[in-house]
From TrEMBL:
The lineage of its organism: Bacteria, Bacillati, Bacillota, Bacilli, Bacillales. It comes from Caldifermentibacillus hisashii. Keywords: Transferase. Coiled coil: none annotated. It comes from the Bacteria. Residues 1-90 form the Chorismate mutase domain. This is Bifunctional 3-deoxy-7-phosphoheptulonate synthase/chorismate mutase.
Amino acid sequence: MSENQLAKLREQVDQINLQILELLNERGKIVQAIGEEKKKHGTNRFDPVRERESLDLLLKNYDGPYTEATIKHLFKQIFKASLELQEIDYERTLLVSRKAHPENTVVNINGETVGDGVQRFVMGPCAVESYEQVREVALALKEHGLTLMRGGAYKPRTSPYDFQGLGVEGLKILRQVADELELSVITEIVTPQDVELALDYVDVIQVGARNMQNFELLKTVGSVKKPVLLKRGLSATISEFINAAEYIMAGGNDQIILCERGIRTYERATRNTLDISAVPILKKETHLPVAVDVTHSTGRRDLLLPTAKAALAIGADLVMAEVHPDPAVALSDSLQQMDIPQFHDFMNELNAFKERLV
Ligand code: PEP
Ligand code: MN
């Protein structure tokens, strides 16, 4: 074959490639239109029967030089890409997405706002243990002008033999201290049945990592008028996390704060691996404020300050950490809670760091 002939054939192949590309573009647009129709009618996007019919039609009409398996493989790739195209479109229309709502959602907690550009803190003990313990921590919070206090009354513990929390008694302690010192209470509720009761005591309902896909709980907190702090599941992808928030918003409650709290990886140097890049991703993909829990993500007191700085630098709206008057005797998470002097240093350092950021 002469050089000239080869160049001509290659030119033909290039032209055919361009034609295939144009057809793929055209096909993609039709697939998107089909996706819109399916969404309107609530039809499942993956339709294996339809895919089988399409493949049969292609193979019946095929008599080219490739094997049938190759043709099947090539078209399977095209079908897969089409499905992905429809899924991307679908995701962009979630209620929590930026596409649906370009402005930032600002969560209002008794007049304190989260998501308006001012970076805030939510601090408090891992678990409520007594009135005195909560009050001592609350007084320390007040010294820094903080208004958001956390504390667990229902503790989802790995072992059934570990301290499970004081339950309603704990909610009452939180409310009493908060009322005395004009603070707001953020606390975890673990069952749908307790949500109504909690409304009288709490200002923000926390849905914990272990319950991120407790869909009945998500639906219940979606149906009430109370802000919700939703934690990322232990091994949840960002997409699963966003969909969990969608459950809440679909119920009519748009007062949601997303909380990155570390995910499980092979790394054992920290309790979990803080996925810091989740913060800008969540802020880009959704209109919700994003918190970072530095205590449960690291599980290490010595890492609370550097990770909190990272959270502020990367644009988190809220930083969560745990404080206990005497962590050594705490009934949960004793290794990672700060004592009160450490908390003061932590806040002073972070406030100085915040100044440098602006
Ligand atoms: C908590 O914040 O008290 C807690 C248990 O955290 P997580 O659900 O992230 O483990
Ligand atoms: Mn804890």
